[in-house]
Specification:
It holds the Pfam family SSF. Helices cover 73% and strands 1% of the residues. The chain is an all-alpha fold and 492 residues long. A two-stranded antiparallel ribbon has the order 1-2.
Length: 492
């Protein structure tokens, strides 16, 4: 490993820690500052923070790997995600920003639900917090797998491992850097680092496919159609009805991702949500097109040059080393780590906030001071990170698979719940509890029974579909049955 590459990564790590220290001095005096940056994020920071924390290593590893292996048909996942993001910004963002403040200045999603449905406050806070911590631990593990794969593929033997494998060393370093700036600087540090990381990610996804296709030494231009995969450039080759539904319904997950929608809560005013939406969707469109192009051009390059790629999810790492000068390679590796770290930090902080606000302050120390709550939050960040490291320790883990399971779990449990709580006056607390439990259970059972791999004797159906439908139906049915008991109504 060239020292210039390591130097570039070192500068990136130093920048992340410096941002954490800045945020520590700026906004960690109380819970609102530590968990929501005082609800004072500029639109550009909120937008890129939402995008970067959303996409994670999936954008540079999972999606390009899927395109590399199967062709353009896998782009339906990205198309579905973009459609879901558009709906999320229009439906959820302005309402959530307004209502979380009007309903008791809620700092977490469980706290908002409790304030919105006071008759079921304890049940909603506890159940939603459990769902958040469990699924986010798995989701965080997916990000750490990406860090492990980077070090295993690109840094083999280049760094002292202290008795660990290169893969495990990558997990430890990735988690360690994230823990430093997240524990120290809280939500502001996470959001500012996300902003920087989002810019780095987008630049890498624009530059890489162009260099692969047209740069000196790329030599892949014009060879896309020569890839020996039937219908490699077709959006419909081998696409079945179930496959199409499973791909495009990834977009349903957006409504229920706490680490994304919490950004909406932190935008400084409701009036600036529209500007944040324009920034966020523009960033997402460019980044998704770049990721799709990365997978297609990477496969073309590999075929033309006889490159053997054992794990398609590492194509970005491999080409970063082959086609770029060492210093630029370090920048590209930083882009990958940026994608991974931005999501991990967001997930750790949301998990920590639920453990602190919805367990510690609710049951153990109701009169805890703001300083005590912030310090407990920092401890919870570390605990969730350790659990995720244990899950990620298996080097055979697949980024896309882990992300898919966690994404579906959140989308099914929280998606219908968030949409209806913000838009339907007739929703009741009992309906909210029923939807939350039903969505999580149906998605979990669908995975456990293997129906996401084999459904009615054919290919699987993505678990978010039955989970989302079942949760929506449960909320409507139970709410209509208990409307006479309703004690709170949503704001317009």
């Amino acid at each position: 490993m060239n020292t210039a590459t390591l130097a570039s990564l070192g500068l990136y790590f130093a920048l992340m820690i410096a941002i954490g220290l800045y945020a520590w001095r700026k906004s960690t005096a109380d819970s609102e500052g530590y968990l929501l940056a005082g609800r004072n994020l500029p639109p550009s920071v909120a937008a890129l923070s939402a995008g970067a924390s959303d996409m994670s290593g999936w954008l540079l590893l999972g999606l390009p790997g899927a395109l590399y292996a199967a062709g353009l048909v896998e782009a339906w996942i990205g198309i579905g995600l973009f459609a879901g993001a558009v709906a999320n910004w229009f439906i959820v963002a302005p309402r959530l920003r307004e209502q979380t403040e009007s309903y008791g200045n809620a700092l977490t999603i469980p706290q908002f639900l409790a304030n919105r449905f006071p008759d079921k406050a304890i049940a909603l806070r506890v159940i939603s917090a459990i769902v958040i911590v469990v699924f986010f631990t798995v989701y965080t593990a997916a990000g750490l797998v990406g860090g492990g794969k980077l070090f295993e593929t690109a840094f083999a033997g280049a760094l002292p491992c202290f008795g660990m494998s290169d893969y495990m060393l990558g997990i430890v370093i990735t988690a360690g850097i994230v823990l430093v700036y997240t524990m120290v600087g809280g939500f502001l540090a996470v959001s500012l680092t996300d902003f920087v990381q989002g810019i780095i990610m987008m630049l890498a996804l624009v530059v890489m496919p162009l260099v692969v296709m047209f740069g000196s030494g790329g030599d892949a231009g014009g060879s896309l159609a020569e890839v020996p995969v039937p219908g490699f450039l077709s959006l419909t080759e081998g696409l079945t009805a179930l496959g199409f539904i499973s791909a495009v319904t990834w977009g349903l997950g957006y409504f229920g991702q706490p680490h994304i929608i919490v950004r909406f809560m932190a935008i400084d005013t409701v009036a600036k949500v529209a500007r944040a939406r324009n920034y966020g969707l523009s960033w997402m469109a460019v980044s998704l097109v770049g990721a799709v192009a990365m997978g297609l051009t990477g496969r073309a390059y590999a075929e033309r040059n006889g490159l053997v790629v054992d794990d398609p999810e590492t194509i970005f790492i491999i080409l970063s080393e082959l086609l770029f000068a060492p210093a630029i390679t370090g920048f590209l590796f930083a882009a990958l780590l940026a994608a991974i770290m931005s999501t991990i930090s967001s997930q750790l902080l949301v998990s920590s906030s639920s453990l602190t606000e919805d367990f510690y302050r609710l049951f153990l120390r109701k009169q805890a001071s703001e300083t005590e709550a912030v310090n407990v939050g920092r401890i919870c960040v570390a605990l969730v990170a350790i659990a995720a490291m244990v899950i990620a320790s298996n080097p055979d883990s697949q980024v896309l698979g882990l992300v898919a399971n966690a994404w579906a779990g959140f989308g099914a449990a929280f998606g219908p719940l968030i949409i209806l709580s913000l838009t339907w006056r007739g929703m009741t607390g009992a309906g909210a509890v029923a939807g939350l439990v039903t969505g999580a259970l149906v998605a979990g059972l669908w995975i456990a029974l293997g129906l996401n791999a084999d459904f009615i004797g054919g290919e699987g159906l993505y678990e978010i579909v039955p989970g989302f439908i079942a949760a929506w139906a449960a909320i409507v049915f139970v709410s209509k049955a208990t409307q006479g008991e309703m004690t709170g109504v949503a704001a317009e």
